[in-house]
Design goal:
Layout (H helix, E strand, L loop, with lengths): L3 H19 L12 E2 L2 E2 L8 H8 L8 H5 L3 H14 L10 H13 L1 H12 L9 H14 L1 H22 L4 H12 L16 H4 L25 H21 L3
Antiparallel strand pairs: 1-2
Length: about 250
């Protein structure tokens, strides 16, 4: 059972994150998450057609632009809480800014990819599952390094991941500035500060600064959208996540 104060904090995080970074309805043609079977449907409040279909229990092929436009902030936050926090098992970790950062990463890149990145950083096996080993390594990593240095390491990792995606798919260059701003928001100097007061790496952190347990090459990190057919890759990712969600429901979640 998740304590009421933790549940409230997680839902508040999703609302804050969605209002800060996601905005309302958009149907950018370069965003692969906006498509269903080749049709440009769009997203709303960061919720993709696939995520909405999973949440409402309907075939993704039936999702329309009108349905996407109807998504409310409360519904989007509940999708985040159920499908991106509970279902992947983030509730098995203490709720800290470090946890929040990886939940945010999972919202953008898929929970299993975010968990694998976290496991890489903390020294756990990269299976994409939050089990006893990952829980233990998570606690030890924070205890050994402290929250501020952990957040710096997360930011370094996340920015490198964004840059790797753009190198693989140059068409995503249009999104890179916004992705980086979102990543830099998790620098310890920025946490809890208004967006217009955020510092950036030239003031706060440089690539030569020490990074804890940083992987040798983020070119090897999984890209959830990589593959010959990006839409097929996205559907496979959602199907994999749906199986995790169904397992959580079967367990009485």
């Amino acid at each position: 059972m998740i304590p009421d104060d933790v549940k409230a904090a997680v839902i508040a995080f999703f609302k804050r994150m969605i209002e800060t970074w996601e905005g309302g309805f958009q149907a950018h043609p370069a965003d692969v998450g906006n498509y269903v079977n080749g049709r440009l449907i769009g997203t709303n409040r960061g919720v993709t057609p696939a995520a909405l279909a999973l949440y409402r229990g309907i075939p993704v092929s039936t999702v329309t632009q009108e349905m996407m436009r109807s998504v409310t902030l409360d519904e989007a936050a509940d999708i985040g809480y159920r499908n991106y926090y509970l279902a992947p098992g983030f509730d098995d970790l203490p709720w800290t800014e470090f946890t929040e950062a990886y939940v945010d990463a999972g919202w953008g890149s898929g929970p299993r990819t975010a968990i694998r990145h976290m496991q890489e950083l903390i020294g756990a096996g990269r299976d994409g599952i939050i089990g006893p080993e990952t829980q233990g390594k998570f606690d030890k990593y924070l205890e050994a390094n402290g929250l501020a240095d952990a957040m710096r390491a997360y930011v370094h990792q996340r920015i490198a991941f964004f840059e790797a995606i753009v190198r693989r798919r140059p068409s995503n260059q249009v999104f890179l500035k916004g992705w980086k701003r979102r990543g830099y928001a998790y620098l310890p100097e920025n946490l809890g500060m208004p967006l217009d007061h955020h510092g950036y790496p030239e003031d706060l952190w440089k690539p030569g600064d020490p990074i804890i347990n940083h992987a040798k090459s983020w070119e090897d990190i999984d890209d959830p959208m990589e593959g010959g057919d990006r839409l097929t890759s996205l559907v496979a990712l959602v199907d994999d996540f749906a199986r995790q969600y169904q397992g959580w429901q079967a367990a009485g979640g």
